[in-house]
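hi! just following up on the protien thing from before. the input was this:
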Amino acid sequence: MTAAHDLGTARLASPDLLRSTFRRHAAGVAVITARGSAGPAGFTATSLTSVSAEPPLVSFGIGTGASSWPAVAEAGHVGVHILGEHQSELAATFARSGADRFGAPTVWREGPEGVPVLDGVLAWLVCRIVARVPAGDHRIVVAEAVLGDSSGPGRPLLYHQGRFGGLRD
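and the predicted 3d structure came back as:
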């Protein structure tokens, strides 16, 4: 048995163990946007999941303490944007607390249902929220895609070990 599988190094589950485990899980990077009563809101998400093809459902997690949560909590629709490897700065902006996420250099427009739609992404969807499921200090949001565009050029941005990067061949 290798040290990596030695049960003697196992630790009891904790928030730190979960974070350190998922730092090893490479994930695609998305930005979720919503129109709230205070204006546009958005955040970087690595928890985006395709749930169902029929109907076309996606899900993502958001902390109830996140600055974007009030907008997502009241919105009927959200924007889901798949970032390209050329967009690590955009991902960092939407991940940074207190950042002016929709100010320059972010390029966006108001899309269907008032949802902020980001320019230059690999793909985007406007989705109607169908559920907000309590899950610890987060909510799992389930949303049905109603419109989108998956024709953006490029390769996906990834998040791994606390850094943004691209695929290696």
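The first strand starts at residue 27 and ends at 28.
Residues 15-22 form the longest helix (8 residues).
cheers
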